[in-house]
Amino acid sequence: MGTSEPQVVTASDVQQHAQSQVTDGFHLVIDALKLNGIDTIFGLPGIPITDFTRMAQAAGLRVISFRHEQNAGNAAAIAGFLTQKPGICLTVSAPGFLNGLTALANATTNCFPMILISGSSEREIVDLQQGDYEEMDQLAIAKPLCKSAWRVLHAEDIGVGIARAIRAAVSGRPGGVYLDLPAKLFAQTMDAEAGRKSLIKVVDPAPRQIPAQDAVQRALELLKSAKRPLIILGKGAAYARTDAEIRSLIEKTGIPYLPMSMAKGLLPDTHEQSASAARSYVLPEADVVMLIGARLNWLLSHGKGKTWGGKSHKDWGGQKFIQIDISPQEMDSNVRIDAPLVGDIGSCVSALLAAIDSNAGSNWAKPPAEWLTAIAERRNKNIAKMAETLAKNPTPMNFHSALNVVRDIIKANPDAILVNEGANALDFTRSIVDMYRPRKRLDVGTWGVMGIGMGFAVAAAVVSRLPVIAIEGDSAFGFSGMEVETLCRYDLPVCVVVFNNNGVYRGTDVNPTGGPDVAPTVFVKGARYDKLIEAFGGVGVHATTPAELRKAMEQAIRSRKPTLINAVIDETAGTESGRITSLNPSAKKK
Ligand SMILES: Cc1ncc(C[n+]2csc(CCOP(=O)(O)OP(=O)(O)O)c2C)c(N)n1
Ligand SMILES: [Mg+2]
C-alpha cells in the first residue's frame, strides 16, 4: 500500500464482510444444509474438507468428529432413522469415502435416510487416471450401493444438489444418497445474492402416499376372513412415527402381533397381544399375516419353508399375506402377496382404521378364542421357563444372569436407548430385554452387520440427549471400540457393556495343530476392556457378578458419564453364530 498508516479493522470493515458481495462453495453447502433444517454433521476432517468442518462449526452446525469414517457413517444413518431427516456423513476422498461407504450401503439396505458427502480430487486428473492425491472415481463406485448419487461441479448447482439429495434420502423408501463434492467446488466464488437465490428449501420432502381405496378394501376383506390372523411389525413401522394409529389398529382388531427386532417397544413388549414368546407357534399356524413395514427377507425365512409350516425348505406354508409397504416392488418378492397395500405406513394404517370403523363400527369381531388361547398358553409357558433361567445365578456369570440385570435397568429407564450387536450378545438381549417405548432398540439390522455399536451410540445420545446403553459382544465392540474416545470427548451419557466371553461366539476353540497361534475365534483371555475408556477420562468398571453389573449400570445412568463395563461372561456359554447357526455352510468333508 505504500503508506505507513497502521492497519486497523474498522466497524465498517466488519459490516462489509458480513454483507460480503461474494460467497463460495463452502458457504453455499453450509447455507443449503441449514436452510433445510440440518443441524448436525457426523464426519472426519482432512483434505479437502477440513476448512469446511471449521466453517460449519462457526456457522452453528454441530460437527461431531469421529476416529473412523465408518462410525461417522453409522452415526449419520441412525440419526436419520431417529429423526426422519437425512443424517449427514462427511468424509475426505478415496479412503475416507470408502470407509464411509459401508455405512452408506448398510443405510440403504436398512432404509435409513442418510447422505454421504465426500470431497473428491481433481476431476481432470482422476478421469485420465494420472495419479492424483487420493484419486478415485467415487461417484461410479457409490452408484450401485445407494438410492442415488450425484456430483456437483459448479457453485450455482449446490442448492439443487443438496435439495435432490435430501428428497432422495427421505422420500418413498428411505435410504442412502451419495454427494460428490470436488475440492475445486469449495473455493469457487459467485455473487452472494445469486448464491442465496440458488438455494432450495425443500417443500414436503417425504410426501404422503395415499393407498388406493380398493386396495384398502381388499386388505380388510382378507383380514376379516382370517381364523388365525397375525400382524408383523417391522422397523419401517417404527420409522413411520405413527405409533398411536398402529396401536389402535392392533387393539381394535385384537390380532396378535410380532415385532421385528427394531420394532420392539412400538407397543410395550409386555402387551398382552404380543406373540413374541410364541413365535415358533404363530408363524406356521397363522392363516392370514399382515406385514406392516416388514419385508419377507431372511429374517422371516422368506415367508416360506418349515418356519411357516411348509413341508420342505422352500415350500409355501399356506398363509395369505397382506403387505403394507411404500415400495410396490416389495410385493411378491418371496411369496405371493394377496393384498398389497402400497403407500406410506401412516396413511395405510389410518385408511384401514377408517375402513374398519365404517364397515364394522364397534362390531369388529376379535379373532376366534381358540387362536388367542393357544397363543397365550405357549406364551405363558415360555415366559415362565425364561423366568426360571433368569433367576439362576451361576458363576461365572452367563448371558442370562447378566441380561436379567439389563432387563431390569431398561424397565426402570424405559426412555433409555438400547444399542445392541454381537451374536449371542445380540440374540439373547433381543429375546430377554423387554422394550417399552418406540425406537428405543437400535441394532445390527437387515445385514446383521458388526460395527454399528459406537456410531449408533454417539448419534443416539447426540440427537436424543437421552441415556444410551450399548450391549456389545466383545468381538462386535472391537469394530468401533476406538470411538470410546469420542464418547468421552463429547461427554455423552453412554454406558457401554462389553459382554466379554473371550471371543467370537465363545472363547473355547483350540488350534487343532497344537501350534502357538490361538484359534481364529479366540481373543486374549481375560481382557480388560474397561481400561480402554479410562485412557480418555471415562469411567471403567470390571464386573464379574450380576450385582456388580447392576451397581455399575445404575451409577452410569445416574451420573450420565461415559462408562464402559467389562462384563465377564462364561466363555463356554455361547453357541456358534448365536441363533443362526444353521446359516453356516457345513463341510461335506470334515
Ligand atoms: C462386518 C461383519 N464382519 C463379520 C461378521 C461375522 N460375525 C457375526 S457375529 C460376530 C461376532 C460375534 O462375537 P461377539 O460379538 O463377541 O458376540 P458373542 O456371540 O461372543 O456374544 C462376527 C464376527 C459380521 N456379522 N459383520
Ligand atoms: Mg464374544
Task: Provide a compact summary of the structure.
The protein has 590 residues and is an alpha/beta fold. It is built from 23 helices and 19 strands. It binds thiamine diphosphate (TPP) and magnesium ion.
Which radius of gyration do the C-alpha atoms yield?
A: 26 Å
What spatial order of strands do you see in the largest sheet?
3-2-4-5-7-6
Distance, first to last CA: 84 Å
Number of strands: 19
Present the secondary structure layout:
Blueprint: H1 11-18, E1 22-24, H2 25-35, E2 40-43, H3 50-58, E3 62-65, H4 69-83, E4 87-91, H5 94-110, E5 114-120, H6 123-127, H7 138-142, E6 148-151, H8 158-170, E7 176-182, H9 183-187, E8 189-191, H10 192-198, H11 213-225, E9 229-233, H12 235-239, H13 243-253, E10 257-259, H14 279-285, E11 288-292, E12 320-325, E13 339-342, H15 345-360, H16 369-391, H17 399-412, E14 417-421, H18 424-432, E15 441-443, H19 453-464, E16 468-473, H20 474-478, H21 484-489, E17 494-500, H22 530-534, E18 539-543, H23 546-559, E19 563-568
Parallel strand pairs: 2-3, 2-4, 4-5, 5-7, 6-7, 9-10, 9-11, 11-12, 12-13, 14-15, 14-16, 16-17, 17-19, 18-19
Antiparallel strand pairs: 1-8
Helix pairs in contact: 2-8, 4-5, 4-19, 11-15, 13-15, 17-18, 17-23
Thiamine diphosphate binds at residues 422-425, 448-451, 473-476, 499, 501, 504-505, 574, 578.
